[in-house]
């Protein structure tokens, strides 16, 4: 009877280590499939916004297509048609739509 109780107590310790390993694995999987790609996308977007220059064809988040007419700090003037210009925030320019518009998906 005493041996049976001791054997049960030893088995419970292995279960805790298995749970810790499982929990750690879940965190690692979440990092590689959710957090890391999001950080990479933010870095690409930041680099893209810093590299835009006058004359680039861009698309805003709202779907407006235009050519950059001028850049003043965080504000960008887009020329939609001859003589038709609008001002948008630099952060409103979309990297994803710009890639699709230029055909480099």
UniProtKB/TrEMBL annotation:
Family matches, as SMART domains: YajC
How does this protein lie in the membrane?
A: Single-pass membrane protein
**According to its UniProt record, where is this protein located?**
Cell membrane
Write out the entry's keywords from A to Z. Answer: Cell membrane, Membrane, Protein transport, Translocation, Transmembrane, Transmembrane helix, Transport
- Which Pfam families does this chain map to? YajC
Question: Which parts of the chain span the membrane according to its record?
Answer: 12-33
Family of this protein: Belongs to the YajC family.
- What protein name is recorded for this chain? Sec translocon accessory complex subunit YajC
Source species of the chain: Belliella aquatica
